[in-house]
Fold:
Amino acid sequence: MITVIVADDSALMRRVISDMLNSDPTIKVIGTAINGEDCIKKCRELKPDIMTLDIEMPVLDGLGVLKRLMPENPIPIILLTGTTDAKKTFEGLNLGAVDFLLKPSGNISLDMDKIRDDLVSKVKAAYDSREKITDKIQEKIRNPPEEMTPVNRNFYSTSKKIIVIAASTGGPQALERLLVQLPKNIPAPILIVQHMPAGFTKTLAERFNNACNIAVREAADGDILEDGVALIAPGGYHMELEIQDDNSLKIRLNQKPTELGVRPNANRLFKSVADIYKDNTIGVVLTGMGYDGTEGSRQIKNYSGLVIAESKETAIIYGMPKSIVDNNLADMTLDVDSIGAALLQAVDV
Amino acid sequence: MDLSKYKAEFISEARDSLDSLNKELVILEKNPNDDEVIHSLFRSFHTLKGNAAAMGYTKFSELAHSLEDALSKIRDKEVVMTTELMSIILEGCDALEEGLQKISEDNPEDITIAHIITEIKDAIGSKEQKIELNIAQKLELTDSDNGLISQVAGKGLVNAYRAILVFESLNVLKTAKTLLVLKLFTKDYSEDVSIIKTTPVMDDIRAGKFGQEVEIVLSTRKNVEELKKIVNTISGIKELYILGVHEDYIRSAGQLHEEKESQKQEIINKHQEEVVRTIQSVKVDMDKLDKLMNLVGELLISNMRLKDIEHKKDLLMLKTVLGEAERQIIDLKDEVMKIRMVPIGNIFNRFPRMVRDLATKENKKVEFIMEGQDLEFDRTILDQIGDPLVHMLRNSVDHGIELPQDRLNARKPEDGMIKIKAFREKNNAVIEVSDDGAGIDPEKVKNACIKKGVITALQAQKMSTKELQMLIFRAGISTNEIITEVSGRGVGMDVVSTSMKKLGGAFVMESTVGKGTSIRLELPLTVAIITAFLVRIGDEIYAIPLNSINETLALKSSELKTIKGYDVFILRGKELPLIWLHDIVGKPKIPKEELLLVIINHSSGLIGLVVDSIISQQQILIKSLQDIVKGTKGCSGATILGDGSIALILDVNTLI
Structure:
């Protein structure tokens, strides 16, 4: 039985979220907390497996809880945030939270069912990977990541490569570790699909932009490709590459239906890029639940491109990368800290 | 997912949020830089937005969202709090109230929020704040204006007028109506009417940048009557003034007063309804529930033990276990009673906003202080107490606190002070409403009451100042009538008197003309069950509430002294007057060597009551006396004893 504590300052929310979680026979809500202080107390007393944490709470907010709790009792925490909280959400992820979920904001009751399904699957995934998550958090606290300064190299290859990356739960953390390894003069454009709601991808891109040497932006319809620039698909849009009439390449965004329940869908990106760049496509599949990226990687392999899967050791949720490996599509499986070096080699060939 | 089962919870939580919101907004108005309040307000709107969205109440959520945005900008110091912005936010909160009402009626989308959202967006979008326009008393004409007037006079449009249109304050159609009037003049009557100028200018009129008043200066060959007829073809204009260009524009006092009164009444009604709504559910501390669980557990064990005793027929153990069980049941009852207790702050929360709105409408400055919000009352009491408190506060603002200039003239601080305080005192809970205003003028009260036939002139002559002042609590007269000597309107303070009787409480008023007024409501803390001493007097049993009892004492009759014919005992150096309850209840006094005293707290001090014996101290259920025996002095009710007999409960304050 997966035991959960629900922390939120709204009584209604506590009830709704508890009901959602309890609707799954393998999950049991063993307690609730009304503010940050109460949250820490309950965690100590009841020792849950997982915790859902509201960010905006009185007395001590979600971020405050993470700061206090992660050093002493690193359990997997899923943040529940409102649409306005993007910056704080990422700070929370940085402080050790595993994943986040958007609180209901729509007006369709479908929303609630989807949220319940998302919530339940995120909790389960976090539970399955709990030891790894705990270890990671403790490691991070013991050894804060050193400043990674990429080695400056001169690149000699003339064939134009492109890097496409797929990431889901645990993506923001993994992407940050990966992207900081890349030097400013990397001779390839980078396109990224991170499963995330609209509004958050922009803030995510800003964060990365500040932290990395390469430039990182949220993609816009009509964008052109640039070396050393990473474009992140905006939440809620599919991102694809398209040849224009004048043979130039442009980014196209669309809102066609979700695929595999997600939009942006990485398969769509990977396939559209592979069709154009063929064996010059380098695909990377990072941590995440589900199978997105597998069909796209298959297409890349059809063109003899390169596919890298994140290793089981570093992937917070070893779902998407596992699917790549299980389908024999991975050219290599690497710890996230080694993927940077691998990419640099790959673009120089 | 079926969300309808969460509706009650949503409404309950939203109500609480709105109550705190109103209170905090008033605080913020006085201290615009209080970060803690700003954060708390932000969180409240944030939660309201999220919860409403989850429940599918789109409009409510949108409105809450725009308010959240406003607070977020204030918090991030991107926008400065102004009176304008505060009013808009308060308006938004009122709309949320309405929205919540509609939600509870299952009609969640039946609210108009578009205009408020636009107002909020405008207010936080640009640093320029809107200017509320009021038409000036005197019309100012420039040279070119005068030139134009002369010019059209030459064509026969010899009469120059100021046409001032007045709209209802929140009339969203005022722009449209004004433009219609202008169109009338310039199209249909273009031969007869020429517009000289407008206030505000045409662009601002089109943008709705005016308050309730708009002025059109025009030249015409028509006269005032004809002009009025033309304008009156358009509905929805509240007032129309057609003045000569040199006439002063003075809003009629009657109109002003009418406006004020109806606005006041609206506010009162709204807030009164909210205040007076009965408490259907209570929030309970987890600790209290845990205690309950423990007690129930202990009772279960006692029950098991009793069963065991029945089996073994062990009478000795029986006594012990029964005693334990009784203790547990009493504790359980106590804990449940505590759960019925609700902090009076729940009711108080609505007051700051109400007082602020009233004071603003009356152009008075009021500092409103609340104390003792944590004091808990049984919820049945709280249900009843809202009404009288609202009336008392209203009176303080309306008739108590003077206008700022008057206060300064009287060497008082410009800000009037109104204070509401809840506290425990001896046997009671007290709620005191006090102000430093004008006080209650006994002369005015006397005159108004005589006029209304509440008392005769002869009776009035015999009354003291205090008694005259207390007349405001009589039925048939309202404070408004007393002050304005205009009869008809207003509900009287007799609601205070009635409510107190219902609750078995009392009230006391102190008022000094020129200094201020203070009214104390004294209430029992709980309604139904009390602890009391059962005492025997002759062959009858009476109950004296433990609350009233200071101590008990046994003394020898030889220790008694007599002062001025009364029995007295010297207790710790002080004279303790003695009263034989036998005298009061009509039982024979049997002279004894040893006397038993129950020393009670009377309003005039300690008094020793002589009884025959003290039977026990126990919990009793108060049953109120009905009909003809109800008003019996000295009795606050009766209780049924274990053996089925009845004991009267003595009310020490009215007994003696």
